[in-house]
Amino acid sequence: MYAAAKYHGLEVKDCGTEQRPNQIARDVERGLSAAQKFIPSKYFYDARGSRLFDQICRLPEYYPTRTEMILLRAKARALIRDFDQGDLVELGSGANWKIRTLLNAMSDETRSRVRYVAVDVSESALIRAGGELARLYPGLEVLAVIADFTIDLHRLPTDRKKLMFFFGSTIGNLDRAETALFLQQIRACLRPGDRFVLGMDMAKSIALLEAAYNDSRQVTAAFNKNVLRVVNRELSADFVPDHFDHLAFFNENEERIEMHLQANRDVAAHIRGLGMVVTLEKGETILTEICRKFRRESAEQMIAEAGLELLAWHTDSRGWFSLAEIKAG
């Protein structure tokens, strides 16, 4: 099930990243062979991509993290109520700002009975963030699980009570079919007494949404292009990031931001690991991320259709970001 190791004061368990080269090969070959070429957004997040995303979260235009943090600080004690021991699980953990808000709301005694389980595909990001938490909270048990939360949820530890978090509206990166499958997997993970907290970025003005993904410092552009660097490294490809421009806009029909890489010239890239050549005409795009925006009514329907039950709904004063507390129905 796992390959395990101790590293910088935390336990690291690998849910099969020896299969990752095959997985990225399958994903990239499928995506770049499609009529609308795409690369799954999970491949943004190597060490460099994680650092760039940390920078994005601090940008003045990028309201989601700032708004979610305000909401978390206000609701932290409510969210951890009755959770005295067990696994505090964060899916797609990345940086540790948000989980620290919850840990800081606990007493030292409670933290000593809690295990923090961080789940992410990026080993380097997990070790960096998990090691920092282990140093900040010496009595806290930290388990870093290298896994893809879209397919590996059944491989998470099951021997303890769970309070699970999916922050950042990361669920918005999944299309409707992927979301339904993901929430069904969440339902299968939840036992009586377990809770799942889902973060969702809510629908708002198009100008505000588009500004958040087109920052003036072009950090998001660098983050977007990082996916090409990952493909180059993992699959021996020769994409030139400067041959693409960052493109992000709100798709009104789908109620989602779309991020693309748009070829600024005719491109022919060799992917030696796949034995294929990818060609794009000038102006053609590779879809790299979707960021769906939610409304409460549709979110509640989505939760119910997955066989889950909404326990509580928390939102900020402007209704920009919401946290839904959920249990198995």
Task: Tell me the β content.
Answer: 25-35%
Q: Structural class of the secondary elements?
A: alpha/beta
CA radius of gyration: 20 Å
What is the CATH C level class of the largest domain, in words?
Answer: Alpha Beta
Globally, the shape reads globular
Strand order of the largest sheet: 1-2-5-4-3-6-7-14-13
H-E order: EEHHHEHHEHEEHEHHEEEEEHEE
So, the CATH homologous superfamily of the largest domain? Vaccinia Virus protein VP39
CATH topology of the largest domain: Rossmann fold
Distance between the termini: 28 Å
Count of strand segments: 14
Number of domains: 2
- Enumerate the spans where pLDDT stays under 50 for 5 or more consecutive residues: none
- Round the mean pLDDT to the nearest integer and report it: 92
Instruction: Give a short account of the largest sheet.
Output: 9 strands, mixed
Number of helices: 10
Into which percent range does the helicity of residues fall?
25-40%
Q: Label the CATH architecture of the largest domain.
A: 3-Layer(aba) Sandwich
Report on the architecture of this protein.
The protein folds into 2 domains: 3-15 and 51-205 and 294-328, Rossmann fold; 37-43 and 208-292, no CATH class. The chain is built from 10 helices and 14 strands. The protein has helices spanning 20-32, 47-57, 63-79, 97-104, 108-111, 123-136, 176-189, 206-212, 219-235, 296-305; strands at residues 3-7, 10-14, 86-91, 114-120, 141-146, 162-166, 195-201, 244-251, 256-263, 267-271, 276-280, 285-292, 308-315, 321-328. The strands form 3 sheets. Strands 1-2-5-4-3-6-7-14-13 form a 9-stranded mixed β-sheet, with helices on both faces. Strands 8-9-12 form a 3-stranded antiparallel β-sheet. Helix 3 (63-79) packs parallel to helix 4. The longest helix is centred in the first third of the chain and has 17 residues, at 63-79. It is globular and about 60 Å long.
